[in-house]
Amino acid sequence: MSGGDGTTITAARADWVDAARAMAILLVALFHAGFLLMQEDLASPVWATVNSAFVTFRMPIFFLASGLLAGSAVRRSWPELWNSRIAVLVWALAIWSLLRFLYFSLVPLDSRPHEGDPRALLLAFVFPATGLWFLHALAVFLVLAKVAHGRMPPWIQLTVAAVVSALFLSVLRVGSLSWDGMAKYLVFFLIGLHAKDLVFRVASRPRPIAAAAALVAFGAAGVVVELTGISCIPGVLLVVSCLAMAVGVLWAALLARTRLVRPLRFLGRNTLPIYVAHVLVIAAACAVLEAVGFEPSGAVPYLLPLVVSVVAIAASLVIHAVAMRTPLRFLYRTPPFLVLDRGARG
What we know:
Blueprint (H helix, E strand, L loop, with lengths): L10 H29 L6 H8 L4 H11 L2 H5 L2 H29 L11 H5 L10 H16 L5 H15 L8 H18 L1 H7 L5 H21 L7 H20 L5 H8 L2 H21 L8 H24 L23
Helix pairs in contact: 1-2, 1-3, 1-12, 1-13, 1-14, 1-15, 3-9, 5-7, 7-9, 8-9, 11-12, 14-15
């Protein structure tokens, strides 16, 4: 999820991709913190508006970055692709789905009964019903990209994916968190995969005026969509998501050239341990706050999601650091029995 693709790129270029991934994972953690805390009446409803404002930003940027780093993996043999990319996604989905099931079975939240449902666990590889769906989607995207490689021109892949995205961002649903998400966001993965050179050229140097203009355009588009209710028109949210993608690339390129580059690089290169664990930390925080009878007042309902998201990210990184120094490292590493070709690189 956060490893390089083996291609030779400059440090600055690697840094901006990491910065983009860092922005995405920060917004994902903030989304889940606001969402869970609101469900437990611990955060202000204003966070629903905040989360809605970034719905066209979070996952498009995440999948764009994944596509940017997938090129050499897709060109490898099937065993090498499995070993270097897909196996760890499959393993992470399996082991962390089980951990989430066990946790929510022992410490249930009234707002998330499906997390402790054995049927949902059994269907985790077919219809993921938790935030881990990204792992499922990325594995499927890699398979689709490999199948299409050399068989279908990129422009056809992008056109079909764009049409599907426009429809699923507006009027179509299949009722599955993962499959709906795949239909919405495949186009961004493919943009990263097939338009990598263009994206890197855009990010090759700081463009503060363009970055500011893109941010204003994205904000204005979001306001217009919210006020007019035109999100149900096919193509509208796809355009807004493309604006968000431009914002992400341009601002990541700027931030990668500031003092923030070190923490952003670190976060961007550790998205997997944050992604798989942060919801459990947030859920634990909700359980503790409810157990002690915490009643937020004043500014607390507005600030609590920010605090909890930061704690969740930090705790996820600590859990990962401790696990990698103990036998628990298996939580993050592909087990030997999943390796198809031990001679393959990855």
